[in-house]
Each structure stands twice: as C-alpha cells, then as structure tokens.
Amino acid sequence: MTKGTDTREKIIEQAATLFNTKGYSASSINDVMEATGLKKGGIYNHFESKDDLACKAFDYAVKIAGEKLLSRVEAGDNAKGRLFAVIDHFQSLPDNPALPGGCPLMNTAIESDDAYPLMQKKVQKAFDRFQQLVEKLAAEAIEQKQIDTDLKPEEISILMISTLEGALMLSKVQNTSVPLKIAGEHLRKLLNKGG
Amino acid sequence: MTKGTDTREKIIEQAATLFNTKGYSASSINDVMEATGLKKGGIYNHFESKDDLACKAFDYAVKIAGEKLLSRVEAGDNAKGRLFAVIDHFQSLPDNPALPGGCPLMNTAIESDDAYPLMQKKVQKAFDRFQQLVEKLAAEAIEQKQIDTDLKPEEISILMISTLEGALMLSKVQNTSVPLKIAGEHLRKLLNKGG
C-alpha cells in the first residue's frame, strides 16, 4: 500500500515536469513511460487514463508553484512586503523555477484555451485563486496605507498577474531577464508610496 | 503550377489555424489531413516534413497577425494614435482574432521555449520585430511630445507587449474582457499626456 502510494506520487511528479515542459497533448504515453521508467501497465495501474494523470499532474504542479510563492509571501515584513513578494517571486522564476518549464498556470492556459476544455476549467480555478490571493494582499497594503494608488485591489491583482506572466513569457523566449526586470520596476514604482 | 501553388497555400492556411489552436506537437499528420481534406501524400508532396509545414504555417500566422496590427497602426491620426493602436488591437483580439486560437507569437513562445528549439528561434525573431515596431512608435510619440513619460522607448515596448500578452492570456482563459480592459486603461493612463 505504501509502496503503491509512493509509486503513484512519483509518477505524478515526473509527469508534471514532462507536461510542464512539453505540454499535455504533445506528451504521449510513451513519453510518460520514458520519464517514469515504468511500463504502460505500471502507469495505468494507478490512473484511469492519460487525462486522469494530466489532471493529477496539473494539481501537483499548481501546489508546488503555490507553495513556492506563498513561502516568499509569508516571509514579507509587512503588507507591502507581502504584495511585492509576488513580484520578487516572478523575477526569480527563470533561474529558479518551481518546476521545469515555467509557470504551469500560463503554460496550461495557453495550451487548453482552445483545445482542452477539461483542463481549461482547472486552470480557470487556479487563476481565480491566484487573483484572489494577490487581491487580498493588495487590499491589506492599501488598508494599512503602505501603498498609494487609485487602483482597486482587483485591478492591482489583474494588472500584476498580466504584466508578470507576459514578462515571464517574453524573458523565457528571449533568454534574458530584461522584460521581468522592467515589469518588476514598473509595478513597484506604480504601487510605491514615496517613503 | 498555379494549381499546385494554390494547394500549397491552402494547406499552409489551414495548418496555421490548426497549429494555433491545438499546438504544433499535439497536431498529428492525421489532424493536418483532416483539416485540409488531403491524403498524406498530398501534403508531403508540398512539404519536406511536418516541421517544414509548421515553419511555413508559423510564418503565415505571423504575417496575417502583423498585417492586422499594421493596418490599425497606419490608420492612427498621429504618433500617439499609432502607438495606442497597439492597445486597441489587443483589446479587439478576443472578439476578432487575426486567426483562431489567439496570438500566434505567444502560443508558439509558450509551446517552444522548453521543447522546440527550431520554432523558438523563429518566435524570438518575430518578437524582436514586434518589439522594434512598438519601440519605434513610442520613440516617435515621445519625439513629437504627444506622450509624457520617463520611460525609454525600449521600456515602453517591453512593458506594453508584456502587459497586453499577459492580459490576453488571462482574458482568453477566463472568458472575460476585464483583464484586457484594465491593462489597456492602465497603459493609456501611463502614457497619456494630459490633454
């Protein structure tokens, strides 16, 4: 039982990296076999289908990415520090990703939005949670008068996530930290209460 | 000869839509056969390999997307109007995409950055050209004192492209125009010279 659970967890972890770099649809069951070192039966012993494994792997990837973000947020000195930790987190991702392949939310969003309804539903919920977290951090920073802005918390959240995800995409494809640096500086300046 | 060229162009067009919605690696040659109504031989008669077709289809998608953007830019009243046309263009994309599936540059960037070096090279060049276009529009608007900003043209370009691509991704996955609306308003306000 314990060994079975271990094997299952290990398949999920290895599949999460495979799917986050190569994509769900582009990864064949042969790719999963190669990544895990298991035979087909050894994989389907633990999962009903490739879609079932893909869903579990996405949940795992989101959990890992979320834990990495939250540990940085929670280390913030105050409300503003916790909000700005989201920016720091994105700037650290090219050199130190939560899992190989970049942001699993953006990767899955781009892959699923026209072609994979099952996964789109899951990524919608994951982005909802991410937006709500940043909105809450922004609301706290405003309430404690640590940032000075006319923007509402919801607008700050959407703007930060859009800008940082777009800059991460551009930094990754161009192999340079410049877009994330410019995006981070801009967002800090936008929200920075002078002093 | 003309008929052969027509068939070739038609395959490229139909494959471009297929690849932009489903992805390159996830689209099998059977998917291309289904999209084009041709047999395998009829496709490989025109292209050396699936990669060859993928490259031609990407070039076509970038050309179509670029023409749509440029026609809007060129209709701008002045330098500021031409720069802001980039924002209007992105805001129009969910309802009126250049081709189905969203921005071919972002889609291809996300798919290729960890797994498809041939295509990553092509998307790097396409983003370079896009960045240079927006940088040129920003430089003209600054020179003609139509926008008021401390940002350099290169920074404006990177910030606009990151924010708009990220907001397009979020708008598409969440089925709402809100992220693109907030991103557009923010960028206009950031660059708007009062009056």
CATH topology of chain A: Tetracycline Repressor, domain 2
- Low-pLDDT runs of 5+ residues of chain A are none
Oligomer: homodimer
Amino- and carboxy-terminal Cα gap of chain A: 57 Å
Mean pLDDT figure of chain A = 94
CATH architecture of chain A: Orthogonal Bundle
Q: How large is the radius of gyration of chain A?
A: 19 Å
Q: At the fourth CATH level, what is the homologous superfamily of chain A?
A: Tetracycline Repressor, domain 2
DSSP, total strands of chain A: 0
* Portion in beta strands of chain A: under 5%
Q: Would you list the SSEs of chain A in sequence order as H and E?
A: HHHHHHHHH
Main sheet record of chain A = none
Largest binding interface between chains: A-B, 45 and 45 residues
Morphology call of chain A: elongated
The total number of structural domains of chain A is: 1
DSSP helical segment count of chain A: 9
Structural class by secondary-structure content of chain A: mainly alpha
Percent range for helical residues of chain A?
A: over 70%
**CATH level 1 class label of chain A:** Mainly Alpha
Report on the structure:
The first copy, chain A, has 195 residues and is mostly helical. Chain A has one domain (54-191): Tetracycline Repressor, domain 2, CATH 1.10.357. Chain A is built from 9 helices and no strands. The first copy, chain A, has helices at residues 2-22, 29-36, 40-44, 50-74, 79-92, 104-112, 117-143, 153-174, 178-191. In chain A, helix 1 (2-22) crosses helix 2, helix 1 packs across helix 4 and helix 7 packs across helix 8. The longest helix of chain A has 27 residues, at 117-143. Chain A is elongated and about 60 Å long. Chains A and B meet through helix 1, helix 6, helix 7, helix 8 and helix 9 of A and helix 1, helix 6, helix 7, helix 8 and helix 9 of B.
